[in-house]
Amino acid sequence: MNAQRRRFLLSVTLAGAVAAATTGLGQTAAPAVGPSSSDAKGAAFVPDFSGMWAHISCCGFEPPLSGPGPVTNRSRRNGAGNGYQFVGDYTNPILKPEAAEVVKKFGESELSGVPAPSPSKQCWPGGVPFVFWNIGMQMIQQPHQITILYSNDHEVRHVRLNQPHSTQVTPSWYGDSVGHYEGDTLVIDTVGIKVGPFAMVDWYGTPHTEALHVVERYRLLDHAATIEAEKRGELENTRLEVTDAGFSRDPDYTGKGLQLQFTVDDDGVFTMPWSATMTYRRPLSTLGQWPEMVCADSPNIYFYANKAIPMADKPDF
Q1: pTM of the predicted model as reported, rounded to 2 decimal places
Q2: Closest by alpha carbon to 247, among 83, 61, 53, 60?
C-alpha cells in the first residue's frame, strides 16, 4: 500500500487486521511452564498476558524514564510527534555517523513531500522492533510457545519458551525469538533479524544490521500506573481517536494494563544500547474483532494528494 493511503487509513479507520484471529482466541490463561512465580500454596504459575491489547498512539516508541532512548520525531503536530510526517532526530547520540546520515536523508524526503519508503508503507514484514508500532496486539500463551498477532497486515511472531537460540540462526523477518518467565515478567530475546530492502527499526528510517539484538520484557501494570505511563507516552506520540471496538478504550475497565519495555543493541548502527516502552490497555472488545485491512502495493497516490480515485468506463466482467 502506498504511504498516503496508509496514513489516510491510520487517521480514518485506524485499522489493521489479522484474518486468522478468531473469536475468543487466546483469552484463557496458559498452564504453568518454565521459571515462574509461586502462589501461597507453592504452586507454580505464569502471569496471564493472554488476549487482545491496544496501544492507541502513533507511531513512535515511548522514551524511557531515564537513559538512552529511541529516535524521536522532529516534526511535531499539536505538541507531539507528527503521525503524518516522519522526520527522525538524527542528532540522537545513540546513532553512529553513518546511521545518522540515513535518518537525516529519510527525514529530508519526508519534508520534501515525497514520503520515504518503510516496511509498512511498502507491504513488507516490519521486523522487530518496528512491528511494535501496531495499535492492536494479541498474545496467545501456551506451555511451549508464545504467539503474538499484530493488527496490521497479518503479522505474526512465534516465541519458543525455555529453549536456547539455535546454534546456526538463519536470518528471518522476525528473527529467532526465545522466551522465559522471570517472576511476573515475560522475557523475549530475539536475534537473527533479516536485513531487507526496507529494513529499519522505526518509522524514521533508522537502519539495522544482522547483529540487531532485541530483548523484550512484558509485565502487567495496575490501572493507575497504566494511565500515568500512557500520559507520558502521549507527550511524544499522538493519541489516536479510535472508534472501532477492537481498539477503543473500555471506559468501565479498571483492570491491569500491559507494559512492554525493550532494549535494542546493534553495534553496527548504534553507539550504545538503548531502550523504549510501549503501554497497552484492554480494548472495548476482546473477542478478536479487529477490522480487516490487507496491505496491497499501488503505484498511484490518491488520498493524500486529494486526487479522484480512477473509475473504469465499464465493468471488468
Answers
A1: 0.80
A2: 53
